Amino acid sequence: MQKSYSRPVQLGLVLLTSLLVVARLAHAQPAVWEIDPEHFSIAFEAGHIGYQKQLGLFLEGSGNFRYDPDTFEFTAGRVEIQAGSVFTNLIARDNHLRGRDFLNTRRNPLIIFEAAEYVPGNYAAPGTLAGNLTLLGETHPIVLGVTINKQAKYPFGHRRETLGISAQTIISRSKWGMDYGVAGSLVGDEVTLRFEFEALRQ
Question: Contact, 37 vs 85, CB < 8 A?
């Protein structure tokens, strides 16, 4: 026999169902996280004639991504780096890096990373983030090792939910056509890229 419910109970069931649907929809959409420009360090290092690893920074960058820290679901991400903001603490070297031998910033002002797939890590190994890096107008896939350092409400200031992330990869710059100094190992082909940042939940 089919049960019949009173009108108040029917309304309650409808309301409960609607709330569950809304909750599922909200849960199905990973939150947007915006990288805090005040806490975004973009570093690189490359060998110099075998004597040392030259360190450098990009001083200007921005980015955001969609991520659910409860389910580890990642759907999209994009980072833009101003190539002309390169800094190695020597004006002549920085100008050389901005020129045609290296970054060619007049023709390629942006370095862009578009993330595609995230696999979470565990206590034994960092996670991985696969995507495409566009440099000098060429796009090739890369994979970064990613460690999520902390997720919590910020203890002061904006007091918003914040993710702290470390990420790193090694690329061969000649793959993007940047081959100056590779012959004779004057400047190393392998370049380590490192990202340290905090991201705010929107």
Answer: no
